[in-house]
Amino acid sequence: MKEVSRRNFVKLSAATAGLGLTAGALAGCSGEGGGSGSGAADGDIMIGVSIWSSTDALGSLSKNILDKAAGILGVKLNYVDQGHVSEQVTASIETLCAAGCQGIIVCNSADSEMQACISTCDQNQVYLAQFYRIINEQNSPDVYATAQNSQYYVGAVHEDEVGNGEKLIELLTMDNPDAYEGIQKGARNICLEGWTVGDATFQQRWTGYQNGVDAWNEAHPDDPVTMTEPVYANTSSSEGAQVTQQFVNNYPDMDALIVAGGGGDPLVGSIGQLANMGKTGSIRVASTDFLEDLKEQLETGGMYCESGGHFCDPLYALIMVYNAIKGKEDFVPVQGEFGKDIQFPYVFVSSVAEYENYEKYFVDDDPYNDDEIAGLAEMSFDELNTSATSLSIEDVMSRHGE
Asked: Which long-range contacts (C-beta less than 8 Å, at least 24 apart) are formed by 379-383?
């Protein structure tokens, strides 16, 4: 099966936009509502998308994937942008349920929001799945129990965020002869830029960063690494720039900056601010969510390393909810069980050569074609899960015999 290219989905957006596949206004979601598991016809299926933004860098890529899949599957989509503001996240679910959508996929901000989201979907008999997120059983046991007891919580599609954080610290602290000339030695004084206080994904990444620092310091007691507490930039480039300037002013020994994410905009602001301050190529920048100009940034020292991927989480969440609405037994929630869990691997890039491999096998390669997306929707959950876990550079290179 060919791999998904996020840029190719962007290129295809012009072709899919003309198909009239998505409903921009809530009035367009006017079905009978209620996913009873009886099995709806494709043309009658309407699925809501609660997303932080459908227009920023990551949000638009997510929307492109969803729009293409909706056209292939013959379903209608309805978007609500909620800005990762808790009250707006919970309100978006109420709005989409009231509009008559039989299923919803949501990228929430904090675990706490999911209690109300799941309850609203239970009351309205609407299937619900998370993308880019999963409820943390240890940190949020009550919310996790709510999901377990739900007959409409389908599951979650997400990445290994703790492992992601650990790997980025490993890449930052080790020497890298393939990096830009001025920053080949590993970092020791790291500043941390978060995006939203309490964000579930950031909390997991932060745990990974801390684990990585602890692992380095245990192995290198005479050459320790320090990392600041996070300063939050929310999801705007201007705030990213402000936080970065604050770090440079307050930490004169700073040699690395982790921008935890936030859809890409805070990272763009941070890189731009470092350039304005003449710091490009002297401070190692690490982040998650690939930039469109990542190759150029690696060449010039604007970026040191980055994790990212295919951005298929919303596609797989959509397929899970679609199959639940269709009444496919493998996907219909079972009360007392948490729901389905799909965990994608991240792709890590820390040199131009590594990015070129990513570009060759993920960017320049063809995306899933129509038949392949239709095929994903026909898979059992185990088959779908296996398809998700075979999206690393190494896996793709191996399939190409390299």
From this structure: 380/330, 381/320, 381/330, 381/331, 381/340
d(CA 57, CA 13): 14
In this structure, are residues 233 and 266 in contact, taking their beta carbons and an 8 Å threshold? yes
Closest Cα partner for 51 from 89, 102, 94? Answer: 89
C-alpha distances in angstroms, 289 versus 112, 282, 369, 393?
24, 22, 24, 16
Q: What tokens appear for 362 in the block?
A: 């993920």
State the CB neighbour count (10 A cutoff) for residue 18: 8
* DSSP label at residue 131: E
**Predicted confidence (pLDDT) per residue in 54-111, tens digit:** 988 778 878 988 999 999 999 999 999 999 999 999 999 999 999 999 999 999 999 9
pTM above threshold 0.85? no
What phi, psi does 68 have (nearest 5°)? -60, -45
Angstrom CA distances, 353 to 281, 308, 347, 362, stand at 18, 16, 14, 14
Question: Token pair for residue 264?
Answer: 């890409």
Residue 250 CB burial class (10 angstroms; 0-12, 13-18, ≥19): exposed
Q: What angle do CA 242, 350, 274 make, to 5 degrees?
A: 20
Evaluate whether 367 touches 396 at the Cβ level (below 8 Å). Answer: no
3-state secondary structure of 14: helix
Give the helix/strand (H/E) hosting 169.
Answer: helix 161-173
Q: Which residues pair with 156 in a beta bridge?
A: 130, 341
